[in-house]
């Protein structure tokens, strides 16, 4: 749709066709002529007055149809609630389960801010459940929702603002402000705000493409937060990490079955979803010396409601990498020995996976989370347990990257092994890099001293 401000509107002229009189309105947008015939001159003059008013106000016209852009958008307009459902349906087919959940969460956060009024709106938690689990979950479109959910969705169908209303910048700001808040009213993390804002921006772009909205330009800044930088207080040092692994091993058979699982996070900086998808054929485990893991698949838990297979875990490639990308991570003899012992003791799944439940299924985050919580209670002091130290199994990955950096390994090598960019490494592990910088400074100083 090409817009133009070059509009010429001629006077109405009357015509006779087969004995009947009609009135013709002619105008031109850019180089494209247009005409419209009316039964009476009065109707034609009324339409001419409308077009003149829009042209004199300096509003753009669509050159192809000859209509004011605002009129075109109004003709194609739908409610924001309906637009959000169409947007998610458009994204659904090519999105993994975790992304589908994120899309639904973002739209469920924004939708309550884009209503005519809040009279009769249910409480925030009920609204969030209805929108997140039903309205914006394409897999449940054919299911009959509970009565309470149906009432909430019917309310949004009546009360949702038209998408064209977001041409008002203050409406966009209200939506942006809404996505900065959690259900309890507190401010969400910077990464959550950034993720939801990106989805909302993409949904606005979809509205522009659909001709429902002009491109909004809003000057808005997210609340000041710096939560991407890793807090060293949560990272266990090598002695603490090994004590935690020993505490995992010292538990029941369940713990012994998972010690190599946690070992992959600590020695190879692997993400939990990458370890779940690790297969024996992707491991080089020599009898002595260093080995290697070829990470090529992740099995993130998205929930059965969000996956095409109906299983709780998706099957995907590496995070932020092409589907067939492979990340090779050299691993020290300690992990080689741990994995060789695990294969000898437990074997592998029929599809080659190293780690599985007793029934052969995928390792669940709730299961290994319980084992990790017990390990913390055994390996850490009361004050350490009350702190953020190794609060999550994921902190073992942080410990691995921190250890590599403090050992003087070049950042680009660390980033490649950890599976993210150097920019992310510098941003997230800034405090760890400070220690590496001190080591580098000491080496430079020693070299300069030797040159005197």
From TrEMBL:
Keywords: DNA recombination. GO terms for molecular function: DNA binding. One of its GO terms (biological process) is DNA recombination. The keyword Nuclease does not apply. InterPro entries: DNA_brk_join_enz (IPR011010), Integrase-like_cat_sf (IPR013762), Integrase_catalytic (IPR002104), Tyrosine_recombinase_XerCD (IPR050090). Gene3D superfamilies: Intergrase catalytic core (1.10.443.10). Residues 301-324 are annotated as: Disordered. It comes from the Bacteria. Residues 229-444 form the Tyr recombinase domain. PANTHER family: PHAGE INTEGRASE-RELATED, PROPHAGE INTEGRASE INTD-RELATED. This is Integrase. It comes from Streptomyces griseoruber.
